[in-house]
Amino acid sequence: MPDGEQDVPTSRIARTARFGGLVAGQGARWAGMRAANTFRSDAKADAKQGERAMATANELVARLGEMKGAAMKIGQILSTIDFELIPEGEREQFKAKLAELRDDAPRVPFAKQRKLIESELGGSLGELFAHFDEVPIAAASIGQVYRATTHEGAEVAVKVQYPGIAEAVETDLRNMNLLLPLVRRIAPGLDAKAVAGELRERIGEELDYEIEAQHQRAVARAFRGHPFIRVPAVDTVRSTRRVLVTEFVEGRPFGEVQQLDEAERDRFAEICFRFFFGLLTRERIAAGDPHPGNLLLAPDGKVVFLDFGLMRHVAADYLEGEKGLARAVMAGDADAVKASMGSLGYLPEPDRFTGDGLLAQLLAVAGWYFEDGFRRLDPEYVRVTIEQGSSPRSDFFGQMRRQTLPPQALLIRRMEGLLFAVFGELRAGARWHGLAREYISEEPASTPLGEQEHAWLSGTPVPCAAT
């Protein structure tokens, strides 16, 4: 087997044993660390807790990455949650280790993938495609992506599930409750049971490529003819529950975009902001995977968006509640902030919170788009902002531990958090507040790109703004 390739363990017994062993082993080690810390100074106890956190992260990355499927996706999503009990200095490194699961997926032998393609599409590879590159161009938690050419001459991307992954995911979803004690140990303020339920539903849908194809077609329709956004078309005839074939689009990957000049990086970031916030506010769709591997800059200047597996439709009343909360923060209305957070389900015990405290918390963690003015982001600003909203020494730490995350907010917050990180890596600048108000308050366009988008929405023909 070539270097980096390995089978995905699909045995129900084996996967259950790995989950159980992971949780039991980590539980015992955390208990031992806490017992030993009673005899240590505060500084040494904090250091030992940091060491234990990183050991946990390393084992999570190794074990969940090997298992792929829902196990790996659980780790990806956990990377977006703040773990209050992990020392401040170690927290971002811990989350970064979990986030590696997005970008470092081990590959599966092509011979097994080939059998699945031929079985799903009903023919030999030569009958199905004029050319098929056996080296994957991407690997993720549930499948791999290959480049191919149809007999009609179309260049396509072929996304193929790992053989046996459906059974593995079903086992993982049944075993998810085993992870809850570990999650509660490092994130006691989180409603882990509610989040687990949301994960079960979203991951179950992500496994079915026919659902992903429906998502992608819906998003492509929503942005058809857009002046600077492109969503690849789905080849419905060649797509099944376990194989998804789409238009292949050439484009510069994120790493190359990072090397462009300031104006081009700012433009790319603004388009990403407009895509995800527009999709949420106009179509009521929260897309949960805005990480760099799903973003390309096409030669014509359009930004290409990929991967529509991790998505959910947000209820109209809930979305209006979230928009109302954002408007209250922007207006500095502390009473309205508390009322909104209470009605949305963030505050299990509303009487234990003050509006002023909640407003200050939200401005600390999302001031980059809640507060007016031009702001250029960078990785350090992102790091400091995240720490301000989750540090044990923060003024908000006590109240954050008493809050929970409503299930419908999970992908919205994941979307915002990953976008914020992407913009930081781009060192992108904008008047983010003005962009946000276009979607949250339906205000007039605040930039030339906004004017193009508003013209497109009104049906007025507009040229593409090339880079």
Would you give an account of this structure?
Helix content is about 55%, strand content about 10%. It folds into 2 domains: about 10-105 and about 165-205, no CATH class; about 250-465, no CATH class. A hairpin with a 5-residue loop joins β8 and β9. The protein has helices spanning about 10-35, 40-65, 70-80, 90-105, 110-120, 125-130, 165-175, 180-185, 190-205, 210-220, 255, 260-285, 315-330, 335-345, 355-370, 380-390, 395-400, 410-425, 430-440, 450-455; strands at about 130, 140, 145-150, 155-160, 230, 245, 285, 295, 305, 310-315, 375, 430. α12 runs antiparallel to α18. It has 20 helices and 12 strands. The strands form 4 sheets. Strands 1, 2, 3, 4 and 6 form a 5-stranded antiparallel beta sheet that branches. The two termini are about 45 Å apart. With about 475 residues, it is an alpha+beta fold. The longest helix is centred in the first third of the chain and has 26 residues, at about 10-35.
